[in-house]
Amino acid sequence: MCGIVGYTGPQSAVTPLIEGLRRLEYRGYDSAGIALGTPNTLFVEKRAGKLANLEEALGSASPEVHSGIGHTRWATHGGPTDRNAHPHLDNEGKLAVIHNGIIENYSQLKVELESKGHTFESDTDTESVAHLLSDLRKKHHGDLSAAMREAVQSLRGSFTLLAVHADDPETIVGVRRNSPLVVGLGVGENFMASDVAAFIQYTKRAVELGQDEVVTITPSSISITDLYGAEVAPREYEITWDAAAAQKGGFTHFMLKEIFEQPKAVADTLIGRLSDNNQILLDELHMNPDEIRALKKIVVIACGTAYHAGMIAKYAIEKWAKISVEVEIASEYRYRDPIVDSSTLVIAISQSGETMDTLMALRHAKASGARVLAVCNTNSSTIPRESDAVLYTHAGPEIAVASTKALLTQIIAVYLIGMHLAQVRGELSDQEVAHLYSQALELPGKIESILETVEPIRELTRKFAKSETVLFLGRNIGYPVALEGALKLKELAYMHAEGFAGGELKHGPIALIDSEIGTPVIAILPAGHEHGLDEKMLSNIQEVKARGARVIVIAEEGAMVVGAEHVIRIPIAPPIFQPILATVPLQVFAYEMAVARGNDVDQPRNLAKSVTVE
Ligand code: AGP
Questions:
Q1: Which residue range is the domain that position 179 belongs to?
Q2: Has keyword Repeat (predicted)?
Q3: CA–CA distance from 284 to each of 281, 288, 565 (Å)?
Q4: Would you state the pLDDT for residue 528?
Q5: How far apart are CA 214 and CA 161, in angstroms?
Q6: 59 with 188, same domain?
């Protein structure tokens, strides 16, 4: 929920720190600050609002020093003000701390520290750590790493912490628990950050950190220990994407770029997944045929858009593999007594791989004996690292807070899982699998054709830009699409939007249709010809139209549509694959609505890209 960056090396630290924060602003953007390692006393500047406010405050006045830490915030404790912005300092102004996460026992710590004479400036949980570290550093004769090791033993909650002290400004100490932190290894310089995007322009060599590991960097060294001082060997890996991929590439917004990257993202996720003898290749599942045949249930856990991918997984896996699939909202899952055991496969879907709700649900499932497969878009993030296996989607970095290409690749991933399980369990023949795979390979081209005709959606947006409510209707596999369309409109246009199963409308929600204002209703028509559902959806359209709704229909080319004010045509595809296509116009609609309403498309208010608190 916050962006964290640290630098030590020959550069003027303000540059890599500010550049890093710019790349991390999607993680939280209600205030930002830096502490620079000037000898004897730190130089600290911090401002409420976006990074630009901090840059304006810094001007050209920042001192020419070579180490420091930086933070961009999504507020949890204490409002988004200058005073509550990170870094937070000890009373001598010589030790600075930045933090991502929540220190659950901060108020108890604060009472103890105040009783020792510490005075607090802010309303945050983080400041307690600054004063605690200050005391412990004195106890450990100036050893900030030892102070951090001891401090963490008295902290409860989830956190990433970075600290720097003016007496040894080129040394930066970090630690993580349930919250992301990665080290970047440069030549004569080293970095720490919440996400490799912060330093990828300087180095592609990264080191992942495990739970409760304390890392200390200087320009020429890195050392990692556990909380008791035992050395941990650095686990280095190569970052697989480049800095350009994390730039806008000429688009006005990351979200628009990522919408247009969807054909390639889907193609990249599909590539090489069918062998010459028509076998789906998913070796990364690490499950042998007997284990797959012994599966009795699948539970999908996820949040938000990823949850909608999970709903689509249910349709595909039950249809093809004949295994019961339950789809669970991750934040609810672990507070029940779910029935899971070794015959259950839990699939945790997460773009960032750091969503705390999903991580905690994953741990709950593992503790109950289930095998966990992660479907994730971020290499070496926490959720894949804590799973038994991981199927990486190949969407590339997704910077916009509103998830688009990650969703389509998550759906492709669960299609592949469904085909593989079905093939191994003998529910689908090799020929049937090959046919499904060939149909999936046509999807990138079909997405392209939708993206070539988005202009009518822009026209449509101008008509409805002032609406305050939009309803979405879907049936069968179109129902998750309706939910996703509503979520996109909520998080981008800040409008009340709600998705319904078409058949549910008459059981209450139809009362929402206001003939006075002509409530806009978007109906996703493709829902499975085999069940005659198109006819039922056409009836739903008539029901809402008769009550004064203004109806927009997403329909396949050639499909009969009656009663719509607007029809957005999409290519024909097998019903099970339709969500891949029907979702795209809804993404564009939400994007254009946000632009029309002057909203911050890539960083919508109150949101963050990766929700790393529960
Ligand atoms: C989607 O547009 C939202 N940004 C949000 O619902 C997101 O999908 C959810 O927070 C899950 O994130 P994850 O995929 O990184 O776990």
A1: 3-245
A2: yes
A3: 9, 11, 47
A4: 64
A5: 10
A6: yes
CA 212 to each of CA 151, 154, 230, 308, 388: distance values in angstroms, whole numbers, following the listed order:
11, 12, 12, 33, 20
Q: What are the tokens at 143?
A: 């050893």
* Predicted local confidence at residue 603, as pLDDT: 87
- Which residues of the chain fall below pLDDT 70? 1, 26-28, 75-76, 243, 245-246, 528-530
**Ligand 1 pocket residue status of 540, Cβ below 6 Å:** no
User: Is 206 within 8 Å of 196 (Cβ atoms)?
Assistant: yes
pLDDT at site 401: 93
Residue 402 beta carbon below 6 angstroms from any ligand 1 atom: yes
pTM (two decimals): 0.77
Identify the domain boundary among 406, 441, 476. Answer: 441
User: Does the C-beta of 491 come closer than 6 Å to ligand 1?
Assistant: yes
Query: Is the C-beta atom of 587 inside 6 A of ligand 1?
Result: no
CA of 32 to the centre of ligand 1 (A): 23
Ligand 1 close to Cβ of residue 358 (< 6 A)? yes
Last residue of a domain, one of 245, 268, 283: 245
How far, in Å, from the CA of 546 to the mean position of ligand 1?
A: 36
Q: Catalytic residue numbers?
A: 2, 609
**How many whole angstroms from 607 Cα to the centroid of ligand 1?**
10
CA neighbor of 330 nearest in space, from 359, 351, 305? 359
**What pLDDT shows up at residue 371?**
95
Instruction: Give, using CA atoms, the residue closest to atom 9 of ligand 1.
Output: 304
Considering only CA atoms, which residue is closest to atom 6 of ligand 1? 304
Q: Can you tell me the distance from the alpha carbon of 597 to that of 491, in angstroms, rounded to the nearest whole number?
A: 13
